[in-house]
Amino acid sequence: MKRNKRFSGKRKYVYRILCGLILALALVGTLLPGQLLFWQSERELSLVAAAPAKYYSAANMAIARNASAQLGTYQKLQLITGRWESAIREAASYERTIAAYEAVQMAKEQMETLYQEGHYPVSLQTDYGNWYTWDAKFYKAVDTTFDTYAAYYWDISFHKYDGVDSHRVCMLEDGTIFLLEAEVEGELDVSGLRRNRIPVLLRQDSEDEIETVKLAIPEQSLSNYLTFPNTDTSELQWMALAQADLVEESYYVIQAFSARRYLLGLCPVD
Q1: What angle do CA 173, 242, 237 make, to 5 degrees?
Q2: According to a count of CB atoms within 10 Å of the terminal CB, is the N or C end of the chain lower?
Q3: Cβ–Cβ contacts within 10 Å for residue 119, how many?
């Protein structure tokens, strides 16, 4: 009998221990996670962690975009031509405001207007035997002083299906063309092209808004005036040079040619 009572007492003691452990585990499971979160938040408040690179990239892009929006055509061309010290690199696809095919269509429309008004020797209008493929790259010229101001532009190449004719157009995002090049088979006739007029290039509806002055052909080479990236002027000779003055802005209109090439450029005056 005493033995049974002793065994019963031990069993009660074991039950009490088990109940105590279960209760302790329940309390720990309820209170510990919250306490751990509190300790972790307290610790992280005193730490300085580096933000992921992608956040800096997005922030920098937003800043550059906002700064670029404040620039006018003149300042953008200063960046692109290097008159405002800059570095040119290919822009990321997410920096585009329009798709490549939209930029190509915009460029073709502008080029057709220039052709119709006698400023460009070739029409790229699609008809039988006049088919072109295209390649469009998107660049930005970023100032090297603050690495903030950027001029975005499209560099588009057109190649005729037979590989004979090719064209290049450089255009700001708003459609302002600042460089046009044509290279054709055989001899290029530029005698009928109009000279020294630029309302179309500056996207002005009337020449009355622009004061254009015809300049004498300078003794300096084209490369002194024409500083666009990836532009070969070695075989070109002067055709015409004019200066267009708007309010607080001045531009050179440059026309040059060779036996097979024609170039029309718009550059900021220093």
Answers
A1: 90
A2: N
A3: 21
